[in-house]
Each structure stands twice: as C-alpha cells, then as structure tokens.
C-alpha cells in the first residue's frame, strides 16, 4: 500500500518542492497549510509537474482542536514532514510573540497528535540559525549551538529541544532534524518557486523581483563584515536538492535505518558565497544588470556560515548537486514565468 506522508506548510517554498519529490517517489501526500505565506494555485502547479494533486486542508496547526480533528481523520499517516512556521529573521525581531506562538505551539500540537494516533516518524525543518555565529567554520553537526541572533532562530533551537526531549520521553517516536542553510532557486519546470507575499525577506527573491522591475533597488545589508568583500557569507543550496534530502530522511525513518531515536543532519553545499557574489553571480548567469546599494547591517544577521556536509553525504547517501549559476538562473526563469516576462 502507498505510504501517506503529511507535509505541513506544503504549499510554501520548500514544502511544495518536497511534495513534488515525494509524489514522484511514489508516496501519497496530504498537505496542511494556512496559506499565510503561500497560495492555493501552487497545488495546480504541483499537479502539473508530478501528475498528482496532493490532498489539502487549510488551517493553522497552532489550533489544537483543528489539529486533533485532522489527525483523528488521518490515522493512516506513516510520517510527517513539518515545515509550517513563520520564517523571516527581521520580522521575528519586531514581533517575537507571534513567532514563538506560531512556531512552538504548532510542533507541540503535532507531537500530541503523533502520540494519540500512533504516528512514529517526524522530519523537522530546522535551520543553521541554531549555530548562531560559530567560532569555527565549516559547521558540523557537533558544532555547539549558540544563543540565537533572532527569535526565529530561537524557535528552531527550542523546537529541536522539544522534539529531542519528546523522543527521549516517548520511545515510540523517531525524529530527524534537518538543519538547512540557505535554500534558493526553483524547480526546473519554472512552475513552482519562491514567491513571498509582500516584500521579500530573503536575498534571491528580492534580486529576481528587482530584475523584473518590481523593486527599484536591492539593499545589501552591510559591507563592513569580516569577509573578503565585506558582505555577509552564506551557504546557498538549490531547493530541489534540499527537497530530495527530505525524501531520503523519510525513507531512513520508515525503513528503520536511523541510528538513534533523534538524529540531526546539516544540509548545504559546503561552499560559502557572499551577498555581493550572489548579486554578481546572478548578473553573470542571466545577463541582467542589477541596481544595488550598500546599507547598514540588519538586526539578527550573522557574519558568515557554511556547512560541513560530509556526515549527511555519508549517512544519508545524499549530496547537493546543482551549481550556483544553474540555481540562480532557475530562480530567474521562475520569476519571469510568474511576471509574464519573455
């Protein structure tokens, strides 16, 4: 029988790409999303790519009654991938209570549902933000976590603790936290990609919107960091590569290949690129000249971080494959399709 996977936040950016990969791998998918940062037509595009439309329910998982009702009607779920969360670093500094309430309560409600309805397996969407500004680079899974630089980052850290403590207390639960670095790009079909509502909080959608004429100028937050060109450095991973890692993690849990009840993996490329390198890389990949200016540093940002991916490569048998230029070009092709640009 086809195994059924719940994908929370499945109409969002990473979630939608993961739904495609799961369906193409033969899984049945049900999506729960409150559409606070996505739209329903994503389901049409998932169906166009994969040939299958996932089941869908719209509600916020921070609502305990609705979450329990959902699980009571879907007791055949084999595993859960939990993406659903508020995720903008800058916004979280301004409205921390919203972030704590939304991001922590939703996970606790899901864990309650797992315990009540005997669903063992959870893959949690974590983040390299749990490492703060590391003392040593690249970052391994044993790099100490630090106090987060933002409430958003702190919710990822606390959620990891909630998950780990729950697995210790309830041995029937198994979980994998995937700490991703910076997902960018879009599906090669250009049918799904990153489409934030309102002003983008992430670099690449801001770049593509500026290239499409929606934004007058790109702000580069800081040129006085301790990096070769003064701008902040991140590890940028193609979203399709990232989505494929979630399928591998699900299979690891379903096939009981996990080596502990709770496991953690870094998902990145192992390479760090500065903000200015991304700007110039986009120009090179697309031939589009960008208008950017240097502005002051942004609250909650760290200086530099990139992953040591060797553990994930070895244990999961997974590796990021797509290069930076190909990835940036895919983001531009997606933006052009959305805006009707030839």
Q: How would you describe what is shown here?
A:
This protein has 342 residues and is α/β, with parallel strands linked by helices. It has two domains: 4-184 and 236-267, Rossmann fold (3-Layer(aba) Sandwich), CATH 3.40.50; 203-234 and 270-337, Alpha-Beta Complex (UDP-galactose 4-epimerase, domain 1), CATH 3.90.25. Helix content is 40%, strand content 17%. The chain has eleven helices and 13 strands. The strands form four sheets. It has a seven-stranded parallel beta sheet, with helices on both faces. Strands 7-10 form a two-stranded parallel ribbon.
What is this structure, in a nutshell?
With 342 residues, this protein is α/β, with parallel strands linked by helices.
Share in helix: 40-55%
The spatial strand order of the largest sheet comes to 3-2-1-4-5-6-11
Overall shape: globular
Question: Could you give the distance between the termini?
Answer: 44 Å
**What is the typical, i.e. mean, pLDDT?**
96
What percent of residues are in strands? 15-25%
Number of domains: 2
Specify the structural class. alpha/beta
Question: Which CATH top level class of the largest domain fits?
Answer: Alpha Beta
- CATH architecture annotation of the largest domain: 3-Layer(aba) Sandwich
**CATH homologous superfamily caption of the largest domain:** NAD(P)-binding Rossmann-like Domain
Written as H for each helix and E for each strand, in order along the chain, the element string is EHEHEHEHHEHEEHEEEHEEHEHH
Low-confidence stretches: none
- Rg calculated over all Cα atoms: 19 Å
Main sheet, how many strands, which sense, barrel? 7 strands, parallel
* CATH fold annotation of the largest domain: Rossmann fold
Number of strands: 13
């Amino acid at each position: 029988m086809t195994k059924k996977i719940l994908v929370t936040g499945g109409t969002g950016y990473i979630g939608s790409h993961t739904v495609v990969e799961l369906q193409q791998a033969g899984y049945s998918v049900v999506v729960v999303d409150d559409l606070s940062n996505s739209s329903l037509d994503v389901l049409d595009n998932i169906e166009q790519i994969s040939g299958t439309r996932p089941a869908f329910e719209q509600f916020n998982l921070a609502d305990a009654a609705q979450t329990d009702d959902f699980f009571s009607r879907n007791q055949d779920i084999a595993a859960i991938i939990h993406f659903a969360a508020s995720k903008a670093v800058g916004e979280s500094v301004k409205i921390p209570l919203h972030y704590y309430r939304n991001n922590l309560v939703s996970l606790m409600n899901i864990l309650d549902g797992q315990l009540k309805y005997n669903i063992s397996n959870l893959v949690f969407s974590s983040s390299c933000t749990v490492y703060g500004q590391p003392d040593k680079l690249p970052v391994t899974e044993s790099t100490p976590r630090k106090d987060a630089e933002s409430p958003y980052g702190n919710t990822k850290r606390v959620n990891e603790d909630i998950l780990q403590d729950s697995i210790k207390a309830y041995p029937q639960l198994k979980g994998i936290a995937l700490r991703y670095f910076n997902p960018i790009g879009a599906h090669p079909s250009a049918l799904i990609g990153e489409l934030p509502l309102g002003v983008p909080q992430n670099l690449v959608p801001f770049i593509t919107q500026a290239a499409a004429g929606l934004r007058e100028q790109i702000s580069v937050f800081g040129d006085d960091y301790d990096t070769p060109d003064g701008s902040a450095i991140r590890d940028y991973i193609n979203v399709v590569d990232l989505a494929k890692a979630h399928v591998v993690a699900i299979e690891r849990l379903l096939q009981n290949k996990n080596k502990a009840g709770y496991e953690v993996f870094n998902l990145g490329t192992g390479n760090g690129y500065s903000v200015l390198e991304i700007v110039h890389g986009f120009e090179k990949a697309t031939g589009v000249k960008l208008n950017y200016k240097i502005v002051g540093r942004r609250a909650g940002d760290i200086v530099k971080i990139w992953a040591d991916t060797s553990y994930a490569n070895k244990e999961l048998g997974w590796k990021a494959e797509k290069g930076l230029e190909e990835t940036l070009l895919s983001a531009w092709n997606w933006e052009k399709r959305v805006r009707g640009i030839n």
